[in-house]
Structure to design on (136 residues):
């Protein structure tokens, strides 16, 4: 699912292009809703992204939740983190990211040691980003 249009709404949240801030009136564009907890717009098709219980410690936790809630296949989810460190992350759908990656180009090194054309492509491959630029 493509990221919501910025059409008058807020700025990118936490440097993540897939999250934009809600408008001052808690308004989000067409196919998104405002999560009051995070003040970010999320696609209507992904209501669990606003759920505070969706923090994760590993990919398997996200896979199990997806199965329990009947949301797609297990391979579509991973624990998205800001680095390779074992820290809490957020369960994220990887398959829906691939279609939104075309416009993002900034080479990164994935935690799996593979160079990706962007953070978005690394996340779509179910891996987090180790550093900017190509892998050594």
């Amino acid at each position: 699912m493509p990221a919501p249009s910025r059409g008058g709404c807020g700025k990118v949240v936490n440097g993540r292009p897939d999250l934009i801030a809600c408008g001052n009136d808690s308004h989000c564009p067409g196919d998104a809703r405002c999560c009051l907890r995070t003040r970010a717009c999320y696609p209507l098709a992904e209501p669990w992204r606003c759920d505070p219980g969706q923090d994760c410690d590993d990919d398997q936790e996200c896979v199990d939740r997806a199965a329990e809630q009947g949301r797609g296949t297990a391979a579509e989810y991973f624990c998205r983190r800001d680095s390779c460190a074992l820290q809490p992350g957020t369960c994220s759908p990887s398959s829906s990211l691939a279609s939104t990656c075309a416009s993002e180009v900034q080479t990164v090194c994935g935690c799996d040691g593979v160079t990706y054309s962007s953070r978005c492509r690394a996340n779509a491959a179910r891996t987090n980003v180790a550093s900017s630029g190509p892998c050594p």
